[in-house]
């Protein structure tokens, strides 16, 4: 999948028209259309805006990958189902391999007001089970 495919598919998932996306990004419809048709590519600053608007990490846009974001409840159910027989280490290692921004994740854990990051991850695991 290419960058243009990712932004087109993500825009469609958000039920936005090209005109709406262009307006939100403060670019012309022609400019936005060229991005989706693969004629040109957005600047780095515009990729950041696309990421925010489309709720897709910039890394995924640039790498041409599009993932599906589950609802929180669907995510909890899926994680709960898959982690029954895994150790805490296996769960933490899997999280570490699959998050894009380690520092942001750790900061989010700190916001949970736990004594340290490890306790927060353990608490999250208990919530999921």
Automatic annotation (TrEMBL):
One of its GO terms (molecular function) is DNA binding. InterPro entries: Cro/C1-type_HTH, Lambda_DNA-bd_dom_sf. Pfam families: HTH_3. PROSITE patterns: HTH_CROC1. Residues 7-61 form the HTH cro/C1-type domain. Keywords: DNA-binding. PANTHER family: DNA-BIDING PHAGE PROTEIN, TRACRIPTIONAL REGULATORY PROTEIN-RELATED-RELATED. This is HTH cro/C1-type domain-containing protein. It comes from marine sediment metagenome.
